[in-house]
Each structure stands twice: as C-alpha cells, then as structure tokens.
Amino acid sequence: MDSKKSKIIFAFVVILFVVFGGLLVTSGNGMQGDEPAHAVQIQHFLDGEYVFLDSLTIPITYHLMIYSIAKPLGIYSLFGLRIISCLLVIFLLFPAAYLLTRNLQKTLQIVFFPIMFVYMFLVYSDLFSLALVLLSFYFVTKQRYWISGIIGTISVFVRQTNVFWLGFIFLYGYIQYVDKEQLLYLFNFKNIIEYLKKSWIFILGVILFVGFIFYTGGVLQGDADAHPVSFHMGNLYMFLFLFFMCFLPYCLGRFKESCKILVREKWIGLAMLAIGIGAMIHHTTHPYNYYEGIWFNLLLVAIENNIFVRIVFSLIVMVSVLTILTTKLEYNGTRGLYWIYPVAIAQLGLSWLIEIRYSFVLLVFFLIFYKNEGKLETMTTIYYILIALMWFMTLVVNPA
After folding, report:
1. Last residue of a domain, one of 226, 259, 294
2. Is residue 362 part of a domain?
3. How large is the greatest C-alpha to C-alpha distance in the chain, in angstroms?
4. Is it the case that residue 400 has pLDDT exceeding 50?
5. What is the mean pLDDT of residues 218-230?
6. What is the pLDDT, as a whole number, of residue 398?
7. 205 is in which domain, residue-wise?
8. Cβ-count burial of 222 within 10 angstroms (0-12 exposed, 13-18 middle, 19+ buried)?
9. Exposed, middle or buried: residue 116 (CB in 10 Å: 0-12, 13-18, 19+)?
10. CB–CB of 157/212 below 8 Å?
C-alpha cells in the first residue's frame, strides 16, 4: 500500500475515532435546535405512525433514509438515530470531499469545517444534503450525467433550496462539455442540443420538483407562514460574516491585495461603502431569530442593540466582499466560476429566516474552488480543527 493511500485511510480512521468519541460524549444530551422536528418525525415512522409534523419544512427523504436503516436494526433511541445519521454523513462526505479535491488537507477542512462539524452529532439533514450536492458535482465533472442528475434530484428532495445547486451543477457540466471559454461556443445551438440529449435527467429533476410543489400546494411542507418565499438580505450578510470567520487566515493573507484593489478601482470603494451602509441599516425581523440559546441569534440581537457591534459586523462584511473579489475560482481547468455567486444570491436571498446552515454549500464550494497552498493551507487545517472542537465542547458543556 502506497503512502498516499495509507494517509487517506489513517485520516479516515482518525475521523471515525473523533466522531465516535463525540457521539459518546453527547449521548446524554437532549434534543438540540431543530432535532425535535427531525428526530420526532423519524420516531413517528418507527412507531408505524405515518403522520407529518407541521413544524417540518423540508420533504421527508432524509427521515425515510434514517428510518429505513433504523427499523431493521431495531434502533429507536435518539442516540441511535444520531449514530446512524452521523455514519451516513461520514461515509458520504469524506469520499465526496476527497474525490473532488484530491487533497487530504482540504478533505479534512471540509469534514472539520468549523460551523458544520457540530451538526455531525445531531439528527439534521444539512450535511447529508451537502454530501449529495458534492457527489452530484463530482459525477458531472466525470461526465456521468445520469448518476449526477439522479443524486442531485434526490438532494432537492432532501432540501428544496438545492434546486439552485442542481442548476449550478447542470450549467457547470455544460461549460465543461463545450470545453471552450468563448461565449460564441457556449451559446451554440448544436452544442446545447447535444448536451441536453446527454443530461436531460437534470431537466426531469426540475420538472419533478415543480410537480411536487403543485402536488403539495407549496415549496415548504410545514410552517409555511414563517417561511414565505420573498427576497431578503439577512442570509447574504450572514454568509459574508461566516466567510470571514471561516476563512480568517486567508482573509488576513489577502488583506494587502484587497487594499490594492480599493486604490486601483475607485468604483469598488464606492460599492464597499454602499455594502457597508446596507449591512449597517439592515434589521433582523424574523421572530425565530430572537429565540434564546442560539449563538448566531445572540449575534443578531447584539447587532440590533449595539452600535459598536454593528460597525464591526459591517467592516467584516466589507472585508469579505473584497476578499471574494480578489480571489480566482477555478476547478479542473474550468476558470471564472464567479457565476456561482448569482446562484448563491438566489439561494440565500429567498429566505427570511437567517440561518448559518443555509451557507454550508456555498462555503464548501468556495473552499474547493480557491487556491490555498503551503503554510497557509496547513494553518487553515489546524485552525478549522481547533475551532470545530472548541465549538463542539460548547455543545457538551451547555446542552439544550
């Protein structure tokens, strides 16, 4: 066995030990956050009660998946459901991350991504959803359109907002298929028809999702009044804050370049001023964002009530935008992947409720697409593992 394979296996085993240790440490904790919706829905299925909770906003694909594993094994406890969910995520996310990056450090960064790691120990659909999106993207890079489209469609029926990422994956596949950078070739009718013949499964996925909306009477399954489909800036500002915190070593390393672009391009300075003012005057209005005991809700309340915190938050938002503007995104020879941002704006902007989990997919795609080499990459890996473990310990010390 070569050293590279040995390192991958060793990293995977270490992750399993960390995860099992984390599960054991949290085994006595009660339900956290949205677990009362997800875990209780699964337990209803296990009890033979095929009812659907009004508090559940997503389709029941994830819940049926956990149920289909738990039922034959006779697992009914919350701890047992957490183990199943955790192992399902690990055995999907680790391979997907490595296959996409072919880089052990970046794989570890995805697994230990600071704001995501804690959700491995909970009955949440977000990381399962993320793993499916990454696997769909991987298969489209290999031109396995059927597999990619099927996995991507399943991801949409895990979390509805993945329909935007299904579209992104479909478009990436087309750009890769054309293999030309000139717009002339991208808009060639013959190329479009040939690609559609190979990838029509993606179109079918969107049609099925639209049919699902008409059948169920709406995009959301429950609690629709609290989640109207309308455009809001809150999650965009939250993403930019999370970007700074998660890519702190990179943001600091790019700070000089960010300053240069301000001097070189005057209009960018005016745009940053407008973005900063926008962040300053934005108000959090969703009632769920005022629930106590959730750290980012505490942050949002602090921003509302403290002018100093509001100024710091606005500065962080501006630094993040500048860092993004000076960062080249590319994957597998395909450059200029900046059109991921309009997709993300649509995905994030159509939610009134501000939630850090809504930013997971975009943050991980950025991690995959940007270059971060040498000491800075090692520093980022260490930073992620330390922050992830520290945040995990807050869950242990302060269980809900």
Report:
1. 226
2. no
3. 65
4. no
5. 75
6. 55
7. 125-226
8. middle
9. buried
10. yes
Number of domains in the chain: 3
CA distances in angstroms from 181 to 168, 197, 263, 329, listed in the order given = 17, 22, 30, 15
pLDDT of residue 349: 95
* H or E element, residue 265: none
189 — pLDDT class (breaks 50, 70, 90): confident
Q: Are 202 and 171 in contact (CB under 8 A)?
A: no
- 346-373: buried (b, 16+ CB within 10 Å) or exposed (e) per residue? ebbebbbbbbbbbbbbbbbbbbbbbebe
Which tokens sit at 212?
């699902």
* 172 close to 137: Cβ distance less than 8 angstroms: yes
| Residue tagged 């109207």 (tokens) | 228
Residue that has been written with the tokens 């990422």 in this structure: 165
Q: Which residues contact 199 (CB under 8 A, 6 or more apart)?
A: 145, 149, 170, 173, 174
Same domain, yes or no: 243 and 337: yes
State pTM to two decimals. 0.93
Bridge partners for 334 per DSSP: 331
The alpha helices in 217-359, defined as continuous H runs, are 234-246, 248-253, 255-264, 266-281, 295-305, 307-325, 340-349
Closest listed residue to residue 127, CA positions, set 391, 364, 395, 368: 364
CB count, 10 Å around CB of 74?
Answer: 8
DSSP 295-329: HHHHHHHHHHH-HHHHHHHHHHHHHHHHHHHT---
